[in-house]
Automatic annotation (TrEMBL), chain A:
Residue ranges crossing the lipid bilayer per the database entry: 6-28, 48-72
Species per Swiss-Prot/TrEMBL record: Streptomyces cellostaticus
Keywords: Membrane, Transmembrane, Transmembrane helix
Designated name of the protein: Uncharacterized protein
Automatic annotation (TrEMBL), chain B:
Membrane-spanning segments: 6-24, 44-61, 81-101, 108-126, 132-153, 196-213, 219-240, 307-324, 330-350
Subcellular localization, as worded in the UniProt entry: Membrane
Gene Ontology terms for molecular function: phosphate transmembrane transporter activity
GO CC terms, sorted: membrane
Chief localization: membrane
Membrane disposition: Multi-pass membrane protein
Organism: Streptomyces cellostaticus
Name of protein: Phosphate transporter
Length: 75, 418
């Protein structure tokens, strides 16, 4: 019996890294947007936070696109 | 396709029926967290999942007969064996749906296949080591991998976004959950609809209807995709309720972390060649997300029941598969008897399920009913029948009028509420 520990380990590592990374990015993006919300409520603006938020969301969208690519191009 | 024998037709229909149960059994995987956190309305969620399942079925052109490859000797596999395997898988899927427990449809199918093969060709035809490496180990690994990832992600998310709140946050997590749930649906369509296509193709080859090594015919792809999409749309509300509310209480952040972890683990595993069951991954990630929030709880009684169902999936489906195979071995009337048994048993399970109807109104985020009791009551509703088959009709009909009006006030049309 041969258990493919390497494959299991890499699945574990990749899942962990990607999940935590994606969720962190997304949370930062959401934070940026809610900062704009607060700033708007006080009559100000939060340009930097919003730009950062959109960068974060773009990265998340890229990850989703890569996911779809993996589904479509499965060997 | 000229020589389309009766047994072959039966196998194809049964395979599509399995595909259907697979669809409504696994709706929960993609959509339970999305529904329970209120990101999508229940009906909208299942419709979206169904559409993506259908799309997924067409995305990959690979012949997915990996389900049988290596696990059993394919040589001399007869359509009857596949039929018996499907009977075991369908009945286990329906039974776990009745008690509202998520369990792997693929494991049920493999269990049925193993049982039927053992009954047909003996224990020598099953590769025990493949069983361990491809079925048992992933079942243990999946919830740990996805659960840890979801737990850490949840911790992190609450750590960074401590001061977040308001409309933007709500909308953001809603969009995030929809996107990751969509990915899970799509991946599910490619994986599980492919499995049925593989089974039908295997049966067609075994029955001599198409040449060995050919791709699934278009009608197979189309019907398998439609069957799984229809099953998904009908929605296995019982399992959705357990997954979304029974295991733990999810906030939008947790739902997002759980679903992202599930999507990542599923894609990573299928891409890196260590395939994990979608059901196990999602259950694990939901529990992980539950543990990740400060003050979050996992209802271990429900979780334990679910683990027990996982452990039973393979042997139970194998037992039914083996029994069905030994009866079909008796001849054509045996096959007919098994077919009648399948329809009859499914009807009985459906009838029992009507005692306590669970539909889309029971899975929405407003937490009026205590979720802890959900599975308990479902099981309580199931326990009477073992009293004896003789009294089956009595127990099935008499309590119905007494219990029906109490729990579900809005009398939903029977077909819509499964």
């Amino acid at each position: 019996m041969k258990i493919d520990w390497a494959a299991l380990g890499s699945v574990f590592g990749v899942s962990l890294a990607f999940t935590v990374g994606l969720v962190a990015l997304f949370t930062l993006g959401v934070n940026g947007l809610s900062r704009r919300e607060k700033a708007a409520a006080q009559g100000g603006s939060a340009g930097l936070a919003v730009t950062g938020a959109y960068v974060c969301f773009a990265a998340c969208a890229a990850a989703v696109a890569y996911g779809i690519y993996l589904i479509v191009a499965k060997p | 396709m000229e020589s389309f024998s009766l047994i072959l037709a039966i196998v194809v229909v049964t395979a599509l029926a399995f595909d259907f149960t697979n669809g409504f059994h696994d709706t929960a995987n993609a959509m339970a967290t999305t529904i329970s956190t209120g990101a999508l309305k229940p009906k909208v969620a299942v419709a979206m999942s169904a559409a993506l399942n259908l799309v997924g079925a067409f995305l990959s052109v690979e012949v997915a007969n990996t389900i049988s490859k290596g696990l059993v000797d394919e040589n001399g596999i007869r359509p009857e064996v596949i039929f018996a395997a499907l009977v075991g898988a369908i009945l286990w899927n329906l039974l776990t749906w009745l008690v509202g427990l998520p369990s792997s449809s693929s494991h049920a199918l493999m269990g049925g296949l193993v049982g039927a093969t053992v009954a047909s060709a003996g224990f020598g035809a099953v590769h025990g080591d493949v069983l361990v490496t491809k079925v048992l180990l992933p079942a243990v690994a999946a919830p740990i991998v996805a659960g840890l990832a979801a737990m850490l992600a949840t911790r992190f998310s609450y750590g960074i976004g401590r001061n977040a709140g308001g409309e933007a946050t709500r909308k953001g997590y809603r969009a995030g959950q929809i996107a990751s749930a969509g990915l899970v649906s799509l991946a599910h369509g490619t994986n599980d609809a492919q499995k049925t296509m593989g089974i039908i193709t295997l049966a067609l080859i075994a029955g001599g209807a198409i040449a060995p090594g050919s791709n699934p015919p278009t009608w197979v792809i189309l019907s398998a995709g439609l069957a799984i999409a229809l099953g998904t749309y009908i929605g296995g509300w019982r399992i959705i309720r357990t997954m979304g509310k029974g295991l733990t209480d999810l906030e939008p952040q947790q739902g997002f972390a759980a679903q992202t972890s599930a999507a990542t683990a599923i894609l990573a595993s299928s891409h890196l060649g260590f395939s994990l069951s979608t059901t196990h991954v999602v259950s694990g990630s939901v529990m992980g997300a539950g543990l990740g929030r400060k003050g979050g709880v996992v209802r271990w009684s429900t979780a334990t029941r679910m683990f027990a169902a996982w452990a039973l999936t393979l042997p139970a489906a194998a037992l039914v598969g083996a029994g069905a195979e030994s009866v079909t071995d008796l001849g054509d009337w045996g096959t007919a008897a098994v077919a009648v048994f399948l329809v009859g048993a499914s009807a009985v399970i459906w009838k029992i399920s009507r005692r306590e109807v669970v539909d889309h109104t029971d899975v929405a985020p407003d937490d009026a009913a205590e979720p802890a009791g959900v599975v308990t009551t479902a099981i309580a509703a199931v326990t009477p029948p073992p009293a004896g088959t003789v009294t089956e009709n009595l127990t099935a009909t008499i309590p119905a009028p007494a219990t029906d009006p109490a729990p579900a006030a809005p009398a939903a049309p029977p077909a819509a509420a499964v």
